[in-house]
Amino acid sequence: MTIVSSYAQSALTFGLQIGSGYHGEVFRLIPGSKVIKLYRSEGEFLAPTSKEGLALRNAEQEHTIASDLFGNGISAPKSFGIYSIRLWRINHPWELVHPLHLTGWLRAYIPGKTIGNLSGEQRQRAEERKWVELQKAQDFGYNPPSDAWSSKNVILQPNGRIVLIDFLYWKKKVN
Ligand SMILES: Nc1ncnc2c1ncn2[C@@H]1O[C@H](COP(=O)(O)OP(=O)(O)O)[C@@H](O)[C@H]1O
Ligand SMILES: [Mg+2]
Fold it and tell me: Which one of 11, 65, 89, 161 is least enclosed by Cβ atoms within 10 Å?
């Protein structure tokens, strides 16, 4: 699928794809301070109505957890909520087909590198900071899943702070 253009209901402008993970694709919006994560399954983007609203549930889950962490001093991107966007695709280079209506999670763009792309002492220090942040989340009542400890899901900013970015399977601890 080739993405040619799209927009959100609030007239956000679509930018470049900056990341891809196991569950989603992340696009940076223009002017650049926000990203939107769209969810897919088996290679296909999830429309809001498909798979019983899985995209919506995913976006709600990530928005809720990231907001809770961010609001309580744990390093997560500021969350701007859930947005429905229209994503056009083309079959042939010149033929636009029907737009897909997709649901995604809008959050702050985090400059820097995922810590799996670092090496040496810088990587070591970032891994230690990741551990501290995840420990804080645990003390606050969360059970971060194994995915949360992955070096693909943590960004080291140029200012030295680390930011957790992926909250799909996070759960509160059961008392
Ligand atoms: N807020 C962000 N700022 C900058 N890059 C991001 C942001 N969110 C995600 N990315 C990039 O996109 C990739 C995939 O995002 P992620 O939320 O981990 O999706 P998935 O659930 O598919 O793993 C990340 O590994 C990272 O490189
Ligand atoms: Mg990820």
Answer: 11
Q: Could you give the domains of the chain?
A: 2-108 (3.30.200), 113-172 (no CATH)
pLDDT value of residue 2: 34
Which of 18, 45, 169, when mutated, tests ligand 1's pocket best, judged by the most ligand atoms within 8 Å of its CB? Answer: 18
Structure tokens at 61: 């889950």
Quote the pTM value.
0.87
Q: Nearest C-alpha to atom 20 of ligand 1 is from which residue?
A: 21
Q: 35-59 pLDDT, tens per residue?
A: 989 888 777 777 766 666 888 899 9
